[in-house]
Structures are given as C-alpha cells and as structure tokens.
Amino acid sequence: MTNLKERLLYTANNPTDDRGRMRAVANNLILHLHPTKVPAPALKWSYTWGLGGMSATLALVLLITGVLLMFRYDASVERAYTSIQNLETQVAFGALIRGLHHWSANLLIVTTFLHLIRVFLTGGFKQGRTTNWLIGVILLLLVVAFNFTGYLLPWDQLAFWAITVGTSLLSYVPVVGAAISNFLLAGPEVGQGALRNFYAIHVAVLPAIMIILLSYHFWKVRKDGGISQPISKERTRVERLTTIPHLVQKEFAAAVVVITAVTIFAMLVPAPLEALANPSHPPNPAKAAWYFMGLQELLLHMHPLAAMLLPGIVLAAIAAIPYWDKREEDIGVYFRSKVGTGTAVIGAILGIALPPVLVIVDEYWLDLPALMPNISTLISNGLIPLALSLGGLAAIYFLFRVIARANRSEATVGLFVFLMVSLVTLTVIGIFFRGANMALVW
Ligand code: HEM
C-alpha cells in the first residue's frame, strides 16, 4: 500500500490511464498556483491560521450560492421580498442556499479582517510584498461593498433602513458625496432605482473586480517567493516540503472545516428576513449593518464629516504601512519581538478600556458645542474632536517609543493593535449597548 504522496507523484508522472491523466491535470493546476516545494515553517497552522485560504473558500461558496440565488431572485421593489419568501418556502434547499450565502458573507468579513491582522502582525507586507498588501486593502473594501450592496436585496425593513442610514452618510462627503449618492440611489432616496443599481453592482461589477484582484493576489503570493518567512539566523537551510500533498492537504482541511461550520450554522440559524420594507415606518433604533456599527458609534459623538474622516485617515495609514515600517530583520516573527509583544498587549488593553470611557464621558458629561456656542458645530463637534483623536493616537505611538523604548516597527504594532481592538470595542458597543433612539442601554 503506497502512501498518498507516492501515489500522487506516481500518477502525475505516469498519466497512462484516465484517473492518472485527471490527477496529472489536477496536479498541474495546483502547481500553477503554488511552487512545487514550500518551506516547512510556512505550513504551520499557527503562522497563517489558514485565514487567507478560508477567505478564498468562502468567496467560492458565495460565488456558487450567489449564482443559484439569481435563478429565483427578482430585483423589483414589488417582487424582491416575495421572491425571497418563495425561495425559502417553495424551492428545495432554497432556505439553506440563502442561509449559506448570508452567513458566508458575514463570516468573510471576519476572516478577511483577521487575515489582514495576521499579515500585519507577522510583517507579511515586507520584503517586496507592498503591492499585495495594497491589493489586500482593496479586497477588504470590496468584501464590505459586497456585503453592503447585498444587504438591500431582500427588501425587508432591515435592508431598507440599514441602507437608508448608510447612504445618508454619503451626503456629508465633501464635493463628490451628493453625486455618488445620486448615482447609487438613482434618485434622492432608496427605491426601485437603488435596488436595480445595487443588484447590478452586487452581481456584475464587484464579482468582476474581485475575480481579477483575487487572481492577482494569489499569483503575487507565488511571485513574491511564497508567504513571508523569518530570516534564518543560523544560516542553516530551511527544510522544504513538496506542495503535493503537504500544502494541499492543509488547504483542503481548512476548506472542509469552514464549509462544514458554515453549513451547520446555516441549518441551525436561518438568514433573517423581517417584515416587508416600509419607507414610512422606520424601526427604532435604526441601526446600520453590524460591520458599520463602529462608524455609526463615531457618528453619535462627532460631526458626520469628522466621523468619516477619522476612519478614512486610519485606512489610508493602514494602506501606507509598508512605506512606514520597512525594517526587514523582524519579518515572519509575530509581534516583531518581545518589546513588540509588550506594546501589543498594552495596545489591546487600551483598546478595550479607552473607547467605553470616552463614549460614557461624551454621552453624559462632555458637550463641546455647548462649551463653544459661538463656533460652528463643524469645528466644535467636528474638527476639534478629530484633532484630539489624531493627537491621542500620536501620543500613544510616542509613549511606546519613549517609555517602552520600542523601535518604529514595535511601536507601530502597539498602535495598530490599539486601533483594531478599539474598532471591535466600538462595534460591540453599537450592537449590544445602543437601544431606542440610540441611547446607551445596559
Ligand atoms: C477576499 C480576501 C482575501 C483573500 C481570499 C486572501 C487570500 C490570501 C491567501 C490564500 C494568502 C496566502 C497565505 C495565507 O493564507 O495567509 C494571502 C496572503 C497575503 N495576503 Fe491576502 N487575501 C485576502 C485579503 C487580504 C487583505 C485584506 C490583506 C491586507 C490588507 C491581504 C494581504 C496579503 C499579503 C500581504 C499576503 C502575503 C502574506 C505573507 O507573505 O505572509 N490579503 N492572501
């Protein structure tokens, strides 16, 4: 009895029968995506956690279930909601396919976000991987755009009001905001034009961009010499293992785990469908989709322009990280070093503790517009809190540099962890601690 590796290699080299030929084709395909051998340390679960592979699997599940949904979905204001109801009640496995699509989309936001964090923490953007980092940032935005445009399609109360809240923010974007909103909604408010446009963007524009960028992302991982690796200090040669079966087995396992988990979840928890959209009856509270709750929380404390500028600046800074942190000695090492681990722990503690304190202080005690009645609220409630927030972030960075004696790379780790944990904390506050009229509730 030969083992799997020998069998695969044998059949790939001897494609004389049909099975052998099919296997040779499959192996060929795999070896177009991957190099023939990969460094053993890159195969460790605890390095990538399979997050890129899981995201790719979920994207594939979304593509397949999305195409199936298109056979029954009707993008018209009169029929969208009933087409979803019919799909769930009259089509065999219709509810399961919708559930798989819905939960995979939500999970993809989580896995992509965690993949970004893993790549950052191991310095996976260094040594010529800048392009792939930038492509990755666009991929994250694409994943959010997919979720946002898909949210409207069931045309229920949740969909209608989440998109109404979300797109109303666009009006605060200077110069181009109104034009983008008009283009997206095809009119002043969410209606038939918006549903048609969101559908076209969701099923044609975004998938086309996604397929191109994902193909490039995978190709570039290979072109960059595989995934990042710590620089070997002992100058010993790192052990290299064949892609087939070592890497392929791991990728297959990650795919099976994620597909099984999301299928079981979709069977137990149906995708939500609320009452038919009613434009004259907003729910209270009218919340945005969960992944925008951090942004909505900022809006409760700042002028909308500042609440949009702050995440915009942070996103631009995240995109620019490869130009800022070029130290290559620490590539492939989680948190860079012991000092980096320390700044990350402090960043995480601050990210859990500071946002709730600031939210409570602003909610009950601090009223900047009342303190500065003669100044426009754009300044008192917008530019001043924005400047204070950016100043606070700079202060955290310099505290790491001075007190923890962290180098640029290690201090950036602390600040990055603070920002990511703060985003999660604000999202949790928005989801669980905001009630009627968006008041704080326990
Ligand atoms: C749909 C979204 C995405 C998919 C499917 C995806 C997929 C992958 C896969 C399969 C890998 C190989 C290694 C691994 O599994 O970790 C990888 C590596 C990489 N990804 Fe992504 N990715 C996505 C989004 C992102 C994002 C948001 C970023 C960062 C902004 C990013 C940046 C990178 C970089 C720089 C590498 C090389 C990492 C290294 O060498 O350690 N990707 N990606």
Quick structural gist:
With 442 residues, the chain is an all-alpha fold. It is built from 18 helices and 2 strands.
What report would you give on this structure?
With 442 residues, the protein is mainly alpha-helical. It folds into two domains: 250 residues, Cytochrome Bc1 Complex, Chain C, CATH 1.20.810.10; 150 residues, no CATH class. Helices cover 68% and strands 1% of the residues. It has a two-stranded antiparallel sheet. The model has no long low-confidence stretch (mean pLDDT 91). Protoporphyrin IX containing FE binds next to helix 4, helix 6, helix 7 and helix 10.
**Sheet with most strands:** 2 strands, antiparallel
Taken together, the total number of domains comes to 2
The SS-based structural class is mainly alpha
| CATH H-level homologous superfamily name of the largest domain | Cytochrome Bc1 Complex, Chain C
Q: From the 3D structure, determine the CATH topology of the largest domain.
A: Cytochrome Bc1 Complex, Chain C
How much helical structure, as a percent, in the residues? 55-70%
Can you give the mean pLDDT? Answer: 91
Radius of gyration: 24 Å
Contiguous low-pLDDT stretches (5 residues minimum) are: none
Q: What overall geometry do the principal axes of the alpha carbons give?
A: flat
